[in-house]
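Field reference: sequence -> structure
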Amino acid sequence: MLSIARGGLTVGGALAYALSVKNCAAMNVEFYTAVDERLPVPVVLPPMLDPVDVAGLTVLVADDVADTGKTLELVRDTLDGNVAEVRTAVLYQKPRSVIDADYVWRATDSWINFPWSSQAPITGPKGVDA
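Structure field:
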């Protein structure tokens, strides 16, 4: 299981439990900078995934949304040639996505507000971080 951080971490963790997968990893990719605002292209952030760690494996890549699909495409293309097989899973896929995920829970053209990314951070008493 390879989760795309950050949005895919929750999805990947849930799928790993559901599929009894214990070999989990994450790949950090930055693309969105604000609501419906993004960099020109997705950028892989450190720590980088070592291709040796996934060589020959069957990998399921998990993310929350395939909006443009460019992040999912970057990760899939990074794995391609290094793994035995790569498949993709997302909660939501938008019609403009450049990639069709192998597993999609819902198709939508709406902006998705997940509670873990759209709510204010949790703070403790008197503004102290919890």
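Note: The chain is about 25% helix and 35% strand.
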